Amino acid sequence: MEILITNGNIWNGSETIPGNLLIIDGVVSAVGADVEGTDNCTIIDAEGATVLPGLVDVHVHLREPGYSYKETIEAGTRAAAHGGFTTVCTMPNLNPAPDSPENLSAQEEIIKRDACIEVKPFATITRKRLGHELTDYAALAPRVAGFSDDGTGVQSEEIMKEAMEGIARTGKVLAAHCEVESMLHKGYIHDGEYARTHNHRGICSESEWAEVERDIRLSRETGCRLHICHVSTKESVALVARAKAEGLQVTCETGAHYLAFCDADLQEDGRFKMNPPLRSAADRDALLKGIADGTIDCIASDHAPHSAEEKSRGLEKSAMGVSGIELSLPAVYTYAVMPGHISFRRMIELMADNPRKIFNIEGGIRPGDRADITIIDFNNTFKVTPRHFLSKGKSTPFEGLELHGIVKATIQAGKIAYTQDNVSIKEH
Question: Is 246 exposed, middle or buried, given 0-12, 13-18 or 19+ CB atoms closer than 10 A?
């Protein structure tokens, strides 16, 4: 199959240059102003749009197997392609949890049947994510992006150290959900001004950073590659910065909603409830600084869809988690690039380049790369209207806001995964 992208502003790693891009048999063949296709190629007109390396989201919940009423791999990957993502890494809070080769196969079969982009699963750190018995890392490692018990932190230091020792032998990444359960006290939003003035139970920042501190120390002792999920506090950012300065193999991510909102923006609505919660303005500012100075490596959506009923119970009783994969890139562009917090180049590093490096993911936009490509128009805006989401999950704090950046097409391994209705596609 041959695809020619014409009239695009093509990202070359440092700037965009007008030109064409040719894909042959799933691989980028040539880039340049004079590049042409054969008589049998499919032509995508990218006029007015930017052609980027396909985005990678290293933290999504696609809910299958086990919770297909919330999301399916089919709907979730269509939503990811709509958001410009060509690869997603799926978290293991599933039923059955991918804690054995047999249970992982149940997920892989659905991925093979229904996914429209690349899906790389995480296997669990512990059996059934209960934090007690280690999984067989050697048996699972060749088939997974890494290991995580996301949704819960591993509470036992002894178990976590054993896990890191085992995972270190595989060379894979341990993606840690850092949360000390004994510090939660049934909280459900940040323990800040909004919680105090509106009589809500708060989650203290230390419940996150105390476990970040512990896991960095264990990473130092074991040599395990540690990736810290959904960083939300200023203390966590400082701890990661110190770990990097020390030369430890520690990376981390945050989400677009933590960059755009803080607890002063909370409303009595389940679409503002996620874990970790929206923190203080000072925490948000530290995250914005962290994505700019290199402390934070990736922006991941933590796409966590739930049913409408589960998100309709207000701040206290709604399920934790929001849908974000269709908004992540426009939100980062609108709230981080446009105000000048980060450069356009840094956005691409955070959402495409760094995730590939950390998790050893193929794809890109240079000749010879597997053709994973996102075409997006940053000149136009859209109003966030959840009923238009392709995801089954419709809950987002961005609802009703205006964002810059409309994805025109997503191509994964040379196959068109998504195109906007008004994009010109024709056979030569």
Answer: exposed
Please tell me whether the overall predicted TM-score, pTM, comes out greater than 0.90 for this model: yes
pLDDT at 33: 82
Per-residue pLDDT, 88: 98
Encoded tokens for 219: 């990473």
Selected catalytic residue, list 149, 150, 191, 302: 302
Q: Do residues 83 and 326 touch, judged by C-beta distance below 8 A? A: yes
Instruction: Give whole-number Cα distances, 58 to 34, 101, 148, in Å.
Output: 36, 21, 11
Token duo for residue 359: 């998790």
Q: What span, in angstroms and rounded, lies between the C-alpha atoms of 112 and 120?
A: 11
Assess whether 302 carries a catalytic annotation: yes
| Residue 212, SS3 per DSSP | helix
Burial of 328 (0-12, 13-18, 19+ CB in 10 A): buried
Under 8 Å between Cβ of 159 and 222? no
Residue 141's H or E segment, with its range, is none
Residue spans of beta strands (DSSP E) within 83-230: 85-90, 118-123, 146-147, 173-176, 189-190, 202-203, 225-228
Q: Which of 214, 198, 111, 119 is nearest to 158 (CA)?
A: 214
| CB count in 10 Å sphere of residue 8 | 25
| 313-344 pLDDT tens trace | 999 999 999 999 999 999 999 999 999 999 99
| Three-state SS letters, 247-305 | CCCEEEEECHHHHHCCHHHCCCCHHHCCCCCCCCHHHHHHHHHHHHHCCCCEECCCECC
Q: Tell me how far apart the alpha carbons of residues 49 and 155 are, in angstroms, rounded to a whole number.
A: 47
Q: What is the pLDDT of residues 251-282, one digit of tens each?
A: 999 999 999 999 999 999 999 999 999 999 99
Residue 428 pLDDT > 70? no
Segments in 83-205 forming alpha helices (H) = 101-114, 137-140, 157-170, 193-197
Distance (Å, whole) CA 335 – CA 340:
9
Instruction: Give the single-character DSSP code of 364.
Output: B
Read off the pLDDT band of 232 (50, 70, 90).
Answer: very high
pLDDT tens by residue, 128-160: 999 999 999 999 999 999 999 999 999 999 999
Q: Is the pLDDT of residue 426 over 80?
A: no
In what helix (H) or strand (E) does residue 419 lie, and over which residues does it extend?
strand 415-419
